[in-house]
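Memo to structure team: turn this sequence into structure tokens by end of day. - J.P.
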Amino acid sequence: MNVAQPVLVAAHGVSLAPGGTPILERVDIAVHAGELVSLIGPNGSGKTTLVRTLLGFATPDSGRVERRPGLRIGYVPQRLQIDRAMPLTAERFLGLAPRGTPAARRAAMAELGIAHVAGRAVQDLSGGEFQRLLLARALLAEPELLVMDEPAQGIDVVGQAELYHWIAELRARRGCGVLLVSHDLHLVMAATDKVVCLNRHVCCTGHPEAVARHPEYIALFGPASREFAVYAHKHDHVHDVAGHVHADHDHPHKHDHAH
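Reply from structure team:
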């Protein structure tokens, strides 16, 4: 990602302590156009509060938030409860969005490979299909920035891989920035450009493989968390139990598949 791309949204030294309880402490984060940034951290680390602050729904006590003027944002929520008694098809669900013509809704579903579920009840969709439907809904805003809160929650491993494939495809095709919120580094390794690890303050930031080796990340998630990284590329190397990279002829447990 070229850092010369314009900043879409950023926090500069943002702190927030409602009622005197610190939630965010001097946080710096930025998402540029065309960049996929993953915000990770344990439950209670301040991720949701930071996103709300970046989007303008919460005001920091100190520091400042920078947003590109007129920034169009597509938001995919962490959870969306649908009344199972409500007869609602996928196409009708998209019709409830504040934006988008029927043609735009059909195009968004086709772009995400779910045109075939248009007439199916939302309640009958798989977890992965429903998340892609939420993503299609966000696309109706023609976003410059996509914000996704725990998008892989409740989806099986195959569905997760498919979802991240579509996110990467969208970023590449549309050139939008993506802010992806997750509590699992291994779920975001495949597509992300930069990881920001948050635990009220920014513990570490950088390329996902570097973050996975950082002492503060290991202290938060445990040494075993380094062993479950998902990679999108074909391996020409292997990793030992400590996470070190070896040429494929140096290690007996050679493999060439995503893991």
